[in-house]
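[Q] Does anyone have a clean structure-token version of this?
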Amino acid sequence: MVEKRKPFIRLEITEETTADLRGRQSVRTTFKLSERSIDALSILASQLGIKQKSLFDHLIQDTQALKVIAKEFDDFSSRMHRIAKTYVVSRKSLESLERVSMQYDTPRDALVEYSIERILPLLAREKEKHKKRKLLLEELHGYLQNGTKLLQQAEKDLGQDDPVFLEMLNMMRVVKNCCQGVEQCVTKGNKIENF
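[A] Here you go.
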């Protein structure tokens, strides 16, 4: 006879939990935004290594900031060319955006665009970091070249079987892998240079 095990922890799903889970559900929605806003969101998400959805949700779920934007909203100039772009956002973020948009009679697209404008200082800081990363990569390449010369000298003076040469060889493999990793980071960040 198989004995039934008692559950270790008993969890109950409440209406509140269910609503919260539904709020996290992803939905697609389209906004008409300036190319600059679209690029800013894309570049910063890539630079920080997070999904655009996470960044977008962070911006839109800040209802206090949305209300401030809506209160100060003046004109969402139709002269600027805007592009329709579909994003994946959480249902909760979209509902928050819709609520503030209706409450203050402010276009959704304007709230989104001005919310994205709030991240531009962060983007500027990331651009400065990118410049420093490029300089460090140049120095790292020099370090790799010097290490390679030193390794060649050790091979010539000591031979390939010498323990010191083998330790240096291992070290240079690690440095080369590190250099490649840094190159990938810098390459990924190159998009930010033209912003």
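[Q] Thanks! Anything notable?
[A] Residues 128-194 form one domain.
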